[in-house]
Amino acid sequence: MASDWSLNQPRAWRIFESWLNADRFPHAILLCGPSGTGKRKFAIEISSALMCQDESVLPCKTCSSCQKIDSLSHSDLKLLLPSLVNDGNRSPKITSGFEQVKKYLKGQSCEHSGISIKQVRELQNEMVYTPRENNRKVAVLFESELMHQAAANSLLKMLEEPSQNCFFILVTSYPERLLPTVFSRCQRLVFHPLKKADLRDKLSKADGDADSLELSVRLSQGSLAKAQGILNGDLDEIRTAVERFIKSGLLHYDGFFWEIVEEIGKKKGRSQQINFLELCAYYLRDFFLIQNEMIDLITMVDRKDYLNSLISYWKEEQIDSGIKILDKAIESLQLNVGFDIVIIDFWRYLRHLGHKKQAI
Q1: For residue 307, what are the contacts with CB-CB under 8 A and spacing of at least 6?
Q2: How far apart are CA 267 and CA 90, in angstroms?
Q3: Is the bond leading into 59 cis (omega within 30 degrees of zero)?
Q4: H-type helices in the chain, by residue range?
Q5: Mean pLDDT score of the chain, rounded to an integer?
Q6: Pairing of strands 77-80, 137-141
Q7: Between the CA of residue 140 and those of 27, 60, 170, 182, 241, what are the distances in Å?
Q8: How far is CA 356 from CA 158, 251, 288, 345, 353, in A?
Q9: What is the pTM of this model?
Q10: Cα 244 versus chain centre, distance
Q11: What pairing do the DSSP bridges indicate for beta strands 111-112 and 84-85?
């Protein structure tokens, strides 16, 4: 049964294996840990193991049950996702169905409207029926922390009185946001970020120069999926915008502020707006590291010339203040404050630094 997900998360794998060997699999499991650490794929693998028809090897990947789960077509596997909207389209139109699930399992990040009571009740209606193809039914709830209060209470009723043949797998990066009574009824499998050495090893065969590979490792926060996305250029556009924004603020190119509001605030989704603010903070930390002669530790290893060109604008205490402004902006954005509002304080801060430099 050894595979990437068992090697990447060995502790979670060992616990899972012990449940199978003892034939004491919990009716409710909570997969929790940072995003991009393999929880989504792990949930599908657990489902496959529970419903595999080969008793000697689980999951065998060759029986009809395993093949149907791999293609997401098994009638006894129920997948529940938040109601998602296209990340680059702010319209209320909801995407749904098989294509949505496939994109989500590949790591697509989308805006959402949460998990509704209607969705959980539909799941409840499905789970009361006898399994059609196997002797077990499995329900996987992705982003489970996004359940509305009524939806969480409805799920709780199923967890309190589970059917003998029904299993629930909850997936979340924010277990503290779950309803406490739901949290307490789940056995937890905790996922941990991958070590940088492991990420470098896994990316060693990928196309890209040494700086690009190292950048993806340092920006990925221990997530293989995120590292691969960065290596494939997922952040290139946002990173270019960040560099232009910082430089334009320092040089008082005020027109660019509104370009960013239009480009990022109106045309990009919330996750990309957060990426923009987080990347701003990474650049500020790199200014600090260069000032303290720790250049080997910088994140933007391929942008040393850009960093050096602006280093004279910054002092250590100013960098700390800038990062605090960005942290506050990210917090406000997560509370649904508009991007144009959360970014304006950082822009004013950049202009202030530029003004002080010009006055010297």
Answers
A1: 283, 286, 287, 290, 298, 300
A2: 8
A3: yes
A4: 4-8, 10-22, 39-51, 64-70, 98-105, 117-127, 149-160, 180-184, 196-203, 210-219, 224-231, 236-250, 255-260, 270-291, 304-310, 316-334, 339-359
A5: 85
A6: parallel
A7: 12, 20, 6, 14, 37
A8: 62, 11, 18, 17, 5
A9: 0.68
A10: 26
A11: antiparallel
Q: Which of 280, 357, 271 is nearest to 322 (CA)?
A: 280
d(CA 352, CA 259): 20
DSSP assignment of 131-158: PSSSS-EEEEETTGGGB-HHHHHHHHHH
Alpha carbon 193 to its chain centroid, in Å, reads 12
CA dist 321 and 85 (Å) reads 35
Spatial contact of 44 and 14, defined as CB atoms under 8 Å apart: no
Residues 6 or more apart in contact with residue 196 via CB below 8 angstroms: 217, 218, 222
Q: How far apart are CA 55 and CA 58, in angstroms?
A: 7
Q: Residue 239 is encoded by which pair of tokens?
A: 């990173």
144-186 pLDDT per residue, tens: 998 999 999 999 999 998 888 899 999 998 899 899 999 999 9
Element of type H or E holding 190: strand 187-190
pLDDT in tens, 4-54: 555 567 788 888 888 878 878 899 999 998 877 888 888 998 899 888 888
